[in-house]
Write a structure and sequence with these properties.
With 297 residues, the protein is α/β, with parallel strands linked by helices. The protein contains 11 helices and 12 strands. It has a single domain, classed as Homocysteine-binding-like domain (TIM Barrel), CATH 3.20.20.330. The strands form 3 sheets. Strands 1-12-9-8-5-4-3-2 form an 8-stranded parallel β-sheet. A two-stranded antiparallel sheet has the order 6-7. Helix 7 links the parallel strand 4 and strand 5. Helix 3 packs parallel to helix 5, helix 3 packs parallel to helix 11 and helix 6 crosses helix 7. The protein is globular and about 45 Å long. Its EC number is 2.1.1.10.
Length: 297
């Protein structure tokens, strides 16, 4: 574990699953990229290395959809599931050795409960679970990922204020910093709560940065402005490419709209962790990195 200091902008990676699919892997699976932790770990290393080579400072692990419950459905006991979660951090570390550089940090991805349902629930929230059920789901995986020694935890694509509160509470005692990023629609979380209330959770000592991910690029700047009114902590922004998903035909539609100019504006608004999510490739991250480092870009 290395200290991750946010005293300058840092570049996040892009869509890990997108890159793995581009490498020829079929990820239409309830475990998504986490399936390759067992089936093709070397390919995960290669994908992380591609983003490091493109200019990313931080690799986000293939654990977004990893859970004890999901692995149990594939016949893995808790010890086996824990080994794969640990492996997600180890593979990102290995990628930093394959593609060495000045900054090689690892963020352990912690997706929402809805991600494990593989039915789009992470874009709706409000799963009908009690607070205790959410705790029982999240606490063991947080503890397991923390044991692997990532530099930071990425509580990401969170659609619901209630789930975010459970996650922030569960950070207590782990001893690892975390960023918290919501998936949003306009000025609200996907579950419909005001972003001002969601971003107020950044005042927890356990939260290093707060912002949004896996959302439309056009929603980022207004969200960051709302976040800045709620906290002085660093902000995080890594939206999708801007393309839309046609669930009926299982195809992406429209053109990418994530641009280096947008990234520069996010930096000016207080974002110190900037990158991309779904459909964002290494070449896109190179453009973002150049925009963040060049004040004239």
């Amino acid at each position: 574990m290395q200290e991750l200091r946010l005293d300058r902008p840092l570049v996040l990676d892009g869509g890990l699953a997108t890159e793995l699919e581009a490498m020829g892997h079929e990820l239409a699976d309830a475990l998504w990229s986490a399936r390759l932790l067992a089936d093709a770990p070397e390919e995960i290393v290669a994908a992380h290395a591609a983003f490091y080579r493109a200019g990313a400072d931080i690799a986000t692990t293939a654990s977004y959809q990893a859970s004890f419950e999901g692995f149990a459905e594939r016949g893995l006991d808790r010890a086996g599931a824990a080994r794969l979660m640990h492996r997600s951090v180890e593979l990102a570390r290995l990628a930093g050795e394959v593609e060495p550089g000045e900054h090689r940090w690892v963020a352990a991805s912690v997706g929402p409960y809805g991600a494990t349902l593989a039915d789009g629930s992470e874009y709706r929230g409000d799963y009908g679970l009690t607070l205790q059920q959410l705790r029982e789901f999240h606490v063991p995986r947080l503890e397991t990922l923390a044991e692997a020694g990532p530099d930071i935890l990425a509580l990401e694509t969170i659609p619901d204020l209630v789930e975010a509160e459970v996650l922030v509470e569960a950070l207590s005692g782990l001893g690892i910093p975390a960023w918290l990023s919501f998936t949003v629609e306009g000025d609200r979380t996907r579950a419909g709560q005001p972003l001002s209330e969601a971003f107020a959770l950044a005042e927890s000592e356990a939260i290093t940065a707060v912002g949004i991910n896996c959302s439309d690029p056009d929603d980022v700047l207004p969200a960051l402005e709302t976040a800045r009114a709620a906290t002085e902590k660093p902000l995080v922004a890594y939206p999708n490419s801007g393309e839309g998903w046609d669930s009926e035909h299982h195809a992406w539609t429209g053109d990418p709209r994530l641009s280096p100019r947008q990234a520069r504006r996010w930096r000016e608004a207080g974002a110190l962790l900037v990158g991309g999510c779904c459909r964002v490739r290494p070449e896109d991250i190179t453009a973002v990195a150049e925009a963040l480092l060049d004040p004239e870009s």
